[in-house]
Amino acid sequence: MKAGDELPTLTIPLTRTLIVAGALASRDYQDVHHDAEAARAKGSPEIFMNILTTNGLVGRYITDHFGPRCTLRKVAIRLGAPNYPGDTMVLSGTITEVTDGAAVVRVVGANGIGHHVTGTVTVGLPEGTV
């Protein structure tokens, strides 16, 4: 593993169920995450994914790649284009730094209208991995 290595992509279908379930699981009861009429009344064409669900999906992407013994030390993300139902988000990552016991990964999640999420994740690696 070295800086510049790319992680395999992860394609996530953005279903209404995923968006609503993610909001409920993270106790985010804002109506724009589950009520299409309320979302439209507030200027959005449809319900959209909350940041906590996105954060969880980014964490899943990293731990799926590095394995169950890794630890997420820092997740720093920024949202961009909303994730609406019926679209697809593709997560990709590039290792930017590898130190003793850790790696930093630049993560991008893109959907049909642009970058939904960008950021970096610092992941602690099990002894002997690096």
From TrEMBL:
MaoC-like domain location is 10-110
Q: Which residues form the signal peptide?
A: none
Please report a single Pfam family linked to this protein: MaoC_dehydratas
Protein origin, superkingdom: Bacteria
SUPFAM superfamilies, per the entry: Thioesterase/thiol ester dehydrase-isomerase
Query: To which protein family does this belong?
Result: Belongs to the enoyl-CoA hydratase/isomerase family.
> What is this protein's name?
MaoC family dehydratase
**Which species does the entry assign this protein to?**
Streptomyces nigrescens
The taxonomic lineage of its organism, from the top, reads:
Bacteria, Bacillati, Actinomycetota, Actinomycetes, Kitasatosporales
